[in-house]
Amino acid sequence: MISSLSPNGKARVFVTGGAGYIGSHVVKALGEAGYEVRTYDNLSSGNRWAVLHGDLFTGDLGDRISLKSAMEDFDPHAVMHFAAYIEVAESVTRPLKYYRNNTVNALNLLEVVQELGIRNFIFSSTAAVYGMPEEIPVREEAPLFPINPYGASKAMTERLLADLSEANDDFNYIALRYFNVAGADPQGRIGQSYENATHLITRALKTAKGEFDLLQIFGTDYDTPDGTCIRDYIHVDDLAAAHLSSLNYLLGNGIGDRFNCGYGHGYSVREVIEVARKVTGVDFPVAEAPRRAGDPPILVADSGKIRRTMNWIPRFDDLEYIVRTAWEWERTLPKK
Question: Is 150 a catalytic residue?
Answer without folding.
Answer: yes
